[in-house]
Amino acid sequence: xxFEDNRAFAEAQDQRDSLREFRSKFKFPVDRNGFSPVxxxxxxxxxxxxxxxxxxxxxxxxxxxxxxxxHFHANRxxxxxxxQTTEGFATLTGSKHIEVVAMNTLTVNLHLLxxxxxxxxxxxxxxxIEAKAFPSDRFAVASQIRMxxxxxxxxxxxxxxxxxxxxxxxxxxxxxxxREGDAIALLLLPGVQYYTGQxxxxxxxxxxxxNAGCKVGLDLAHAIGNVELHLNQWAPxxxxxxxxxxxxxxxxxxxxAFVHESHCSPExxxxxxxxxxxxxxxxxxxxxxxxxxxGAELWQMSNPPILSLAPVVASLELFQEAGLPRLIQKSRxxxxxxxxxxxxxxxxxxxxxxxxxxxxxxxSLIVRDKSIEAKALFDKLCAMNVTGDWREPxxxxxxxxxxxxxxxxxxxxxxxxxxxxxxx
Length: 424
Description:
Elements: H1 7-16, E1 26-27, E2 38-39, E3 48-49, H2 50-66, H3 86-93, E4 100-102, H4 106-117, E5 126-130, H5 135-147, H6 152-155, E6 156-159, H7 170-180, E7 184-190, H8 202-211, E8 215-219, H9 231-234, E9 238-241, E10 256-259, H10 306-322, H11 324-346, E11 350-352, E12 363-367, H12 374-383, E13 386-387, E14 389-391, E15 395-398, H13 407-422
Parallel strand pairs: 2-13, 5-6, 5-7, 7-8, 8-9
Antiparallel strand pairs: 1-3, 4-10, 9-10, 11-12, 12-15, 14-15
Helix pairs in contact: 1-13, 2-10, 3-10, 4-5, 7-8, 11-13
């Protein structure tokens, strides 16, 4: 596409957008300080779908009208409510239905899955993460190592960038596994590096991990709903994700998990067992013996919190309606346009950390001009009702989500950024 730096071009692209109707299906923040909202923070918290409030209200009404019988109501019975997400999760992750389940929150799921797949021995007890992993993943990994009686200082292996760019080179990962693979029990790596926005080669990560004899887990918090995934084909042992970023399910919403079909026979692996991991057909017979559910549902602990799961169902319906191929196509054009505007207008003062050939929605901006105080610039943008997010020490992350952002948002971001720079 030949981009143009003017509002008329942006508006024309919005008119041609086959997904433009979806913007009206979301609640945008209110005007502030005389500015309409420019919301570019889908990488941190997605906007509220109109349908989410409707679905939560419907479940509240079901509770009011039917009480305990809501578990068996004809419309989305609570007993099987988590299966309302199965089709959407399978589509977005490139998985089979038996491999995905909605449950818990992200870090809880990582712990439950590591309880099955991190089985250290005296000679093979290390876990490989990326050096700038999201802190929650690092905390989870260190505590798992410690709980098994090993020292996290010795057990955590880091895949680091070779230079100041922050980019992760898969050749470096291959070399690291060649050197230390015999001592590494598990790789736990992201699909998208949260700080730089780099999309990692997940297929290659899985291949390298398998070849080194390691189990492989993926944290897809910044990947699901953002980039194309093929989990069944890539065959990580497990994966987990939250739903409040690109999936727009609300703060602390119920998360998702994947277990590859090769592990879905319960005799193949040990799990931590709970009430909802018991086979639904005999769950209420209250037998003392445990009868495992099929597939990833075996990893469930408790009946799902319906009011927190209803927005997940609502958002996944929108993704199914929009279709991931259209979303990916728009994302490339929209993020490409914003990156082009930033390069054209601000190439001497602001740079983009995110590699152009390895990105989804997110652009991580860094101020190169040392005369500009980056945090002051971010605060000025906030005062102009531009919502991105700040990451220490000097990165502003923005993410035009294709389900509700448009080309006019990208143009207006560039306009306000230019004003903000003149006011510092």
